[in-house]
Amino acid sequence: MARHVFLTGPPGVGKTTLIQKASEVLKSSSVPVDGFYTEEVRQGGRRIGFDVVTLSGLRGVLSRIGSEPPAGKRECRVGQYVVDLTSFEHLALPVLRDVTKENRNHLLPDIVTCVQSGRK
Fold first, then answer.
1. What span, in angstroms and rounded, lies between the C-alpha atoms of 26 and 81?
2. Which candidate in 1, 13, 64, 84 could, as Cys together with 49 as Cys, close a disulfide (CB 3.0–4.6 Å)?
3. Domain segments of the chain: what residues?
4. Dihedral, 1, 18, 114, 57 alpha carbons, nearest 10
């Protein structure tokens, strides 16, 4: 039987911390895990964007405030954030593509809450 966990909640309640700790416990118990989560990026105490982090330790830019899209790429925005689709596709899509009947129970999904302009 497939097991899926959807973790949602307002900013700052510990969703990412829970995923990090749960994946550490599972890995230390020799349970295979794969997946990714998003992590807030701050500068001078102010949120400037998000990174996508795989459970294997790879990290890349997911979005930044007011940054420009990569040259030759169309701009994708979520509120005030410009999304780096190339980085997301490079890191997150392989994890999703590698889901098989045998390993689908071992994914730890993180539901990304999109921050809309003017909302905290």
1. 33
2. 64
3. 15-118
4. -90
The mean pLDDT value for 9-24 works out to 86
pLDDT above 80 for 55: yes
Check: CB of residue 7 under 8 Å from CB of residue 15. Answer: yes
**Which tokens belong to 13?**
């309640």
Residue pair 108/4 in contact by the 8 Å Cβ criterion: no
Token pair 């999703």: residue: 96
> Sign of the CA dihedral 75, 77, 80, 81?
negative
Q: What is the DSSP string of 50-90?
A: EEEEETTS-EEEEEEETPPPPTTS---EETTEEE-HHHHHH
How many Å separate Cα 27 from the centre of its chain?
Answer: 19
CATH of 15-118, one of 3.30.420.40, 3.30.450.40, 3.40.50.300, 3.30.830.10: 3.40.50.300
